[in-house]
Hints:
By secondary structure, the protein is α/β, with parallel strands linked by helices. It has helices spanning 16-28, 49-55, 62-74, 121-124, 152-160, 177-191, 241-248, and strands at 2-7, 35-37, 77-86, 92-99, 105-110, 133-136, 139-143, 165-169, 194-198, 203-204, 207-208, 214-216, 222-225, 231-236. This is Carbon-nitrogen family hydrolase.
Amino acid sequence: MRVSLIQLDVDPAESPDARRSRAAALVRRQHGSDLVVLPELWLLGGFAYDAWSDGAEPLDGPTAEAMSEAAKDAGVWLHAGSIVERDPDGPIYNTSMLYSPTGELTRSYRKIHRFGFDQGEAAVMGAGTELVTAGTEFGTLGLATCYDLRFPELFRALLDAGTEIFVVPAAWPARRREHWTLFARARAVEEQAFVLACNTAGTHGGVEQGGRSLVVDPWGAVLAEAGAGEEVLTVEFDPAEAARARQEFPVLRDRVMGIRAPAERG
């Protein structure tokens, strides 16, 4: 399996229309990959809160159309990162989109864990409520986004839903870059699955981005890691390694479910 993570530089001096066209062109250049991944909120910026409401769009809007065409032209599965989704009947959402090689939107995922501690994303965006997986010819993908990495229970639920490869777009800041790498490796080891973690580069909303997109195997080994700037990170691996790891080191079968705190005495 050949995977390409497009670590876009999200520069506020570049217009959303120009960045959309540039991202689509970068996707088209990945012809020959099986799966291409873009980062979180790459069109407007993960910390550009003031731009979100005006820049929000539906799942059949201009970004969706551009990504569908790019996936079809390149003949790849495309995880198009996430957009600010405008729901006509509700709030805005941080929503990721997965396209098949024919350009069909096969899955969308509204980010469950919103970052900000009652500010920013947590204050202005709605929270997703559904786990999302997708069956492909190279295995089952589990979808998560950025801050979700801090919540292992989400990844365990996706594991129980059949996930073998986690796809995690992000706009993770440079000041917590070590957490980014640590959590990506931890989720891979815990779930004995591949983690494809695609971050942004550049600075938006005044926040320097961490870059360092990475691909981690089910043993926690980093197969490839990007630098801090814009880069296309391409790596090949055997997706069957997830099943082999689970067979060779069957830790998941020793899970003990339903553990409760002891009753109080007295």
